[in-house]
Amino acid sequence: MKTPRKARAGQYVALLAYLVFLAFPFLWLISTAFKPPRELASLHPTWIPRNPTLANFRQAFDEQPLLHAALNSLLAALGAALIAVLIATPMAYVMARRRTLLARAATGWVVVSQAFPFVLVIIPLFLVLKHLRLINSVPGLIMVYVVWALPFALWMLVGYVRAVPVELEEAAAVDGAGRARTLVSVTAPLLAPGIVATALFAFITAWNEFFFALVLLKTPQKQTLPVVLTHFIGAEGVADLGPLAAAAFLATLPSLVVFAVIQRRITGGMLTGAVKS
Q1: What letter does residue 224 receive in the DSSP assignment?
Q2: Lowest pLDDT segment from 38-42, 68-72, 122-126, 236-240
Q3: I need a labelling partner for 214 at 20 to 30 A (CA). Which of 25, 122, 147, 230 fits?
Q4: CA dihedral defined by 133, 137, 138, 140, rounded to 10 degrees?
Q5: CA atoms within 13 A on the CB side of 197
Q6: What's the predicted TM-score (pTM) here?
């Protein structure tokens, strides 16, 4: 009995250390955002600001168009999440239900494509968007985000579709429901947690993305929030630490709020109540 208890205690200690490791940057960011310049320059920094201030937030909004950049990020993230889910859901259903060689090859390609670096795909995407005259535009950026998020979205949804018992669809077919009616009325409701999780992934990925936005968006009016955050770093490479921390803290809030609101739907049982005993 002692060995399992020690092993479990070790697991809890490791989990706690991992949580501390993850929380440290965010907690330090919050602390920095509320510190006045004198405390930021102190040789003995503290976790809790001695004289907390909102001056960094006011300065951040005065120096950079954060609200406009946040609106651009929101449009790009919502558009990418919606389009990626609309495309990936029927494709994932076909890939999961049709166990053909082509479906297996497509699944393998989806997994392999995740290993492609950003630099490898940016030039072809840039040329395509240039031909479509979508450079320096939010719709063009949405197209890029959809292309980048779609493989992983497919991979996620294929697993959710395979978890739905085929017997439910067969029972609906016996009752006279067609393929489309079965997909809409039987399968889609059971996939709701998976669709929400996939949309969340696509949203957070697009909201936090920097490289594509930096390359494709040229004018300040079209830039997203991660790109605007770099403007707090001067030409000499010296960061305006207080306003930068304040703006970065505000930039992380939407992802945290979205996840907090829908995390119950993600972790809830996908098939709860689907099959009656």
Answers
A1: -
A2: 236-240
A3: 25
A4: 30
A5: 22
A6: 0.80
